[in-house]
């Protein structure tokens, strides 16, 4: 599939499109959402509070993917790091370079912001994502990821 992909920062005007993509992302990871308004509200809060940068990948047919990045800090590197927390391209838009374009836009913006690195995690069985990230120079780190659910 040969389509031109552009990436830009999402604004509040993009909330409906980003929400639709976010719902696809939640479905991909089999996250059940009891309150149907919660995904949009969550994204709206992130945008309004400046908590995250949401990048939107588009082709001539419209939005096909998004990435959500949380700027934070690393004590070990004593510098700013970015967490590429979410990356999703809808099924009809895959294999056109949208995922790669989103990753590259994240890297470019992180460098421009003075970040010392980008952290991300993906599912152990998500071979396509792992191949993308490794193809863009990401390497597995020496730390094991742990999570404690608090409710």
From TrEMBL:
The keyword Ribonucleoprotein does not apply. Residues 5-151 form the N-acetyltransferase domain. It comes from the Bacteria. Keywords: Acyltransferase, Transferase. The keyword Transcription does not apply. CDD domains: NAT_SF. PANTHER family: AMINOALKYLPHOSPHONATE N-ACETYLTRANSFERASE-RELATED-RELATED. This is N-acetyltransferase YhfO. It comes from Streptomyces xanthochromogenes.
């Amino acid at each position: 599939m040969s389509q031109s992909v552009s990436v830009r920062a999402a604004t509040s005007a993009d909330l409906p499109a980003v929400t639709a993509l976010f719902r696809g992302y939640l479905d991909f990871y089999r996250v059940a959402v009891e309150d149907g308004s919660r995904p949009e509200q969550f994204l709206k809060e992130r945008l309004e509070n400046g908590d995250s940068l949401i990048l939107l990948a588009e082709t001539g047919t419209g939005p096909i993917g998004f990435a959500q990045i949380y700027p934070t800090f690393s004590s070990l590197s004593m510098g700013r790091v970015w967490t590429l927390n979410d990356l999703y391209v809808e099924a009809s838009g895959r294999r056109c370079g949208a995922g790669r374009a989103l990753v590259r836009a994240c890297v470019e913006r992180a460098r421009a912001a003075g970040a010392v690195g980008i952290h991300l995690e993906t599912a152990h069985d998500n071979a396509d994502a792992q191949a993308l990230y490794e193809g863009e120079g990401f390497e597995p780190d020496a730390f094991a990821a742990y999570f404690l659910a608090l409710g």
